[in-house]
Specification:
Blueprint: H1 3-26, E1 35-39, E2 42-45, H2 46-62, H3 70-93, H4 100-113, H5 118-127, H6 132-152, H7 160-170, E3 177-187, H8 194-211, H9 217-224, E4 231-239, H10 246-252, E5 264-266, E6 269-280, E7 286-297, H11 299-302, H12 306-321, H13 326-333, E8 345-349, H14 356-362, E9 374-376, E10 379-392, H15 394-424, E11 428-430, H16 433-436
Antiparallel strand pairs: 1-2, 1-11, 3-4, 3-6, 5-6, 7-8, 7-10, 9-10
Length: 438
């Protein structure tokens, strides 16, 4: 930014801070909502920070993971709020939004992946102390940011050679046991000197040596944490050797449950692995495929609302229940121009291949059993499972998993680089003194 732009932005932000503070004082009897940070022209308030802290803490608990030390969690929450603010500002500038139907579909997908209904998920969220409205808003934010990423992250092409090289490196690793790991990283500067590496390695060795005296790991970290080489704990959950970084996979079998590994040097820091526990896993190469037929009633095709489409779907449901042939009705009444000529045939799919609402439904209906009308973003569906079969996917499973891993790795590298550039060109000021030292 040029000097004039900087001055204008500074004045606008100063006025914003003054107005927010002033109007907070005007609310008789209400506490002032402190401003913790300014991101361009948008404030991050104490209430936003506290809400995000509670939400991320509850997510760690919900997924069976240990909450990081308070200093690390505070830094994680602040970074998340800043990143979200920058991205939402850019999304607004580019008219990137998420509809209520998309939010509902995303939540249905979360429910499906956790093997529960939408209603059960909603109940669990409310029982955890969260507001479901706040939860929906968080999902909406994630959707908007995800859509923005689709615009700014270039398409990722993983070659067959890359997959082959990955499989060669990981193919002989044990896939029958999963390890619950905590990755304790002693961070290094961007361009570390030999002295930086020596100091970080010494910290790691001190940590490993101290835990041999039956002291709690987090208490030790609090005592030896050096702000020049911050210690970050990441709970990696359960992973097989094939799912973890190669350097970790080489060390994991040398660690006893409850113990730490020797220091592992990587370009971004010195790592110490904490093995919490292990479990045996049974790799499966078979999936259940379903031969799915459907009847789709679209509101657009009726010139009406989803309510009108539901009435039509209910009418068709009753007709079939009264004896009409599902496949002939699908041919005559379905609004899906691709499948209607084939009597509603959608082909063979696993439940994971289907939209979340339909995936939940197919798991709850039997072969040749008609489902009740199911709502999706495009309309109302009546489903029929014509047949099922077990399919051996062992030949493609490892390649698919390798492709997913390599694609995600490339995506994360692009995303981190883009976020760094976004922050570099933004005005970010931490207002709360305690957060400035993070």
């Amino acid at each position: 930014m040029n000097k004039l732009t900087d001055i204008i932005l500074f004045l606008r932000i100063s006025i914003l801070i003054f107005l927010l503070s002033y109007f907070s004082f005007l609310r008789a009897g209400e506490p002032i909502d402190q401003i913790y940070a300014i991101v361009n022209q948008d404030p991050i308030t104490k209430q936003e920070f506290d809400n995000k802290m509670d939400m991320i803490s509850s997510q760690y608990i919900a997924f069976g993971k240990t909450i990081p030390p308070k200093k690390q969690l505070t830094k994680e929450v602040l970074s998340k709020l800043i990143d979200d603010s920058l991205q939402l500002q850019l999304a607004e500038q580019n008219n990137v939004t998420a509809t209520s139907a998309e939010v509902k579909e995303a939540i249905a997908g979360i429910a499906f992946r956790n093997q529960m209904s939408f209603t059960e998920l909603k109940k669990n969220i409310v029982n955890s102390g969260q507001s479901f409205d706040n939860y929906e808003n968080e999902i909406k934010i994630e959707l908007i940011i995800s859509k923005l990423h689709q615009q700014v992250i270039r398409p990722i092409q993983i070659t067959e050679q890359q997959i082959n090289e990955y499989l060669t490196a990981h193919g002989k690793l044990d896939k029958s046991k999963a390890y619950h790991l905590e990755d304790i990283k002693i961070s290094l500067p961007e361009d570390p000197s030999d002295n930086d590496i020596t100091v970080a390695t010494t910290i790691a060795k001190t940590l490993v040596k101290s835990t041999g005296k039956n002291k709690k790991i987090r208490d030790i970290i609090e005592n030896i944490n050096d702000d020049r080489y911050p210690i970050i704990i990441v709970d990696r959950g359960f992973q097989t050797q094939a799912e973890m970084p190669t350097l970790f996979a080489k060390e994991i079998k040398k660690i006893k449950k409850g113990s730490l590994s020797k220091p592992i040097e990587t370009p971004n820091g010195i790592h110490v692995l904490h093995l919490i526990t292990t479990k045996n896993v049974q790799p499966t190469s078979y999936v259940n495929q379903l031969h799915v037929h459907h009847i789709l009633i679209k509101p657009d095709s009726l010139g009406g609302s989803m309510t009108e489409a539901k009435k039509e779907a209910d009418k068709i449901y009753k007709t079939i229940k009264d004896g009409a042939n599902f496949y002939e009705v699908a041919k005559d009444k379905s609004h899906d121009s691709n499948s209607a000529p084939k009597k509603g045939d959608l082909g063979w799919h696993t439940a994971d291949d289907l939209p979340p609402q339909l995936a939940l439904a197919v798991n709850n209906i039997k072969v040749n059993e008609l489902s009740k009308p199911i709502e999706s973003p495009v309309g109302w569906h009546l489903l029929m499972i014509k047949n099922t079969k077990k399919v051996d996917i062992s030949k493609n499973l490892e390649r698919k998993q390798a492709l997913q891993y390599l694609t995600q790795k490339e995506h994360n590298e692009q995303l981190n680089k883009w976020l760094s550039q976004l922050k570099y060109s933004a005005y970010i000021k931490i207002m709360k003194k305690e957060l400035q030292d993070l």
